[in-house]
Design brief:
Layout lengths: L2 H14 L40 H7 L2 H4 L13 H26 L22 E9 L4 E8 L6 E8 L10 E5 L17 E10 L2 E8 L8 E7 L2
Antiparallel strand pairs: 1-2, 2-3, 3-4, 5-6, 6-7
InterPro entries: APC4, APC4_C
Protein name: APC4 protein
Keywords: Cell cycle, Cell division, Mitosis, Ubl conjugation pathway
Length: 234
């Protein structure tokens, strides 16, 4: 160790571990603990060495402001407490703020329609994920809400489009439909249906009238083609 290192450690011990007679009647150690670590203890006890807020511009600003001093919008400051204590206090306040909206929103949500998309076995084995890439789109012009998704087990060459009117009292025709890609990209009628079969990797709405899909060849072979296609919703 260099002399600089030794001096640094000595200064640290001198500053932080001096005897503190005023703390003898307090619970815990009779020494001034390291000032950073005390903030991280998950305890409700007061800090052994609270910070000096004298000259703090923010505190002075609040103290001199008659409107902000008692404002319920400002989170109270606990100079004697650790960050863990403050965190618990803040979580409690946030939970209380969110509870009322959660109750109101929860009571306003109701089931508009129920559709059986697929059935899974009732065994206790973990059920594989069958519902893939749900993508939501809201057409504000016609007030239609769309959901794009695929079902892996049924047919990987299909994407499903579910549409509902944003006014749940109204219905729209063809509430759910499937688009099958299969071998529609074959160049000629002579190609076998199995040679160029495509499945959907991803699908998103491009705009209110167009769906963008990423397709791949289903045949297991090197150099599988990837196709980016834009399909008119009509």
């Amino acid at each position: 160790m260099t002399q600089k290192d030794i001096t640094f450690v000595a200064d640290f011990l001198t500053e932080h571990f001096n005897e503190a007679p005023e703390l003898y009647n307090r619970k815990g150690k009779y020494f001034n603990v390291e000032r950073v670590g005390q903030y991280l203890k998950d305890e409700d006890d007061d800090l052994v060495s609270p910070p000096n807020t004298e000259g703090n511009q923010w505190f002075n600003f609040l103290k001199n402001s008659t409107h902000l001093k008692e404002s319920p919008l400002l989170f109270p400051y606990y100079p004697e407490k650790s960050l863990h204590f403050v965190k618990r206090q803040m979580e409690g306040v946030i939970d209380q703020c969110l509870q009322k909206p959660a109750d109101v929103i929860g009571k306003s949500v109701h089931q508009a329609v129920c559709m059986s998309l697929y059935r899974t076995s009732q065994s206790e084995d973990s059920t594989p994920q069958l519902f893939k890439l749900p993508f939501l789109w809201n057409d504000k012009t016609s007030n239609i809400h769309y959901v794009l998704f695929t079902i892996l087990e049924n047919s990987i060459s299909k994407i499903y489009i579910l549409k509902r009117h944003t006014d749940t009292s109204r219905s729209v025709s063809n509430g759910i439909l499937a688009v099958e890609f299969g071998n529609f990209l074959n160049n000629s009628m002579n190609e076998s249906s199995d040679s160029r079969c495509y499945s959907c990797l991803d699908a998103h709405f491009y705009d209110d009238e167009t769906v963008t899909v990423v397709l791949k060849e289903s045949v297991e072979q090197e150099g599988k083609e990837r196709v980016l296609a834009q399909l008119p919703l009509s």
